[in-house]
Amino acid sequence: MTILNSDFQTARNWDNDNFVHPWEGMANIGRNERTFAEGGDGIYVTTETGERLIDGPAGMWCVQVGYGNTEIAEAMAKQAMEMAYFSPFSNTNSTAAKLAHEIAERTPGDLNHVFLTTGGSTAVDTAIRFIQFRNNVLGRPEKKIIISRQKAYHGSTYLAASMSGKERDKGWMDQASHLTHFLPNVNPYARADGQSVDDFLDEKIANLENAILELGADKVAAFIAEPILCSGGVIVPPKGYHNRCLEVCHKHDVLYISDEVVTGFGRLGHWFASQEVFDIVPDIITCAKGMTSGYSPMGACILSDRLVDSISGEKSKGATFSNGFTYSGHPVSAAAALKNIEIFERDGILEHVRAVAPVFEARLKALGELPLVGDARGQGLVGCVECVADASAENALELDHSVGAMIDAHCQEHGLILRPIINMCVFSPPLIISENQIHQMFDILEGGIRKTTDDLVRQGVNIK
Ligand code: PLP
Fold it and tell me: What CATH code is assigned to 35-68+348-458?
């Protein structure tokens, strides 16, 4: 199975010399000591040294049914042997067509037109390009601005990255800034002292409406929002937020894109969170990650019938939506996605998530009591612990950077992989995690936070 057991240093050299990783820190390129994941079963991954660790983030929020699922692997192998690939441009394939149908069966409202992509970024790009295309066909080429939010993450292709509001990711990169407008932070934890959550919510809705009015409704094409801003720190907006945003959007003829790349496929206990959890039927949903449980790359941009009908037939003026990928609807990925859906239904994965989520949420909330923890938030099977060592210290930012890494190191030593984002520990375990395993995961996390607190106190940090 693994090259590393026999010749670990060689693989590390290949990794450092030849493999450019996502978000590669250039100061350190070629000098990394990354953990190699070489095997996995259920919620565990096995590293190059044979350590078996709980995978807190489920890969990258995606390994829903867990590692080592032979059913998905076999479905992919069968498809690869029968028909690995054929051009989706003017031909088609029954596995991909069936997948589009199965997805449409599970989406809210009239979201029945499924454009299959290669991942989340290409799903978001497709959504934006479709909106631009539609407005061109409708004869309003000026209506192109997309309103997004601070701390949002929508992907790494140029357009999707331009819609992303994480400051840390923008510093050195170019963006199509003329196409975007960003609304301020929607995290209720960051609201002003003395402000109620209700007032904060009103302010956020006013931010959206004022932006549309100031930019001009004839210029604003869409609003894009993750139901929960996940990689921005699992920010759960106040109750009623999405509903009210949708109302504002529709009042001003602005489309609503719900980016469910993380929340789709079970993370909150439903196929999609937009309607079931947040009570909205958006105009477009994007999804990826959990679609195949990470077994093969795939994403989707799901368009409402209303949008498609508005520019089809006679109304299309002969236009072609010139957007697509060699691997749109790849049969092997589609086979993985179909088997994933079958497993979800047969094994009651969505019901399981809804059953264990209260345990997860209760353990998460309890971490909020620890002195090092500023906020512990989440929903379903996604959570974040935001640590604040000493906000008033001169080196507060430096401290923040080290806190996540320290907790991560302690947890890994005790059998849990986390995904620190500066001072935030974010986790979204495989959806098959049992109640006992949830306790095990939180026990390790709590121990890691306590040990980090002790380390900081020993260093003289004044933890508030
Ligand atoms: N949208 C959201 C909400 C995401 O969290 C991500 C990735 O984390 C993306 C889009 C981009 O997806 P991908 O990395 O598959 O391109």
Answer: 3.90.1150.10
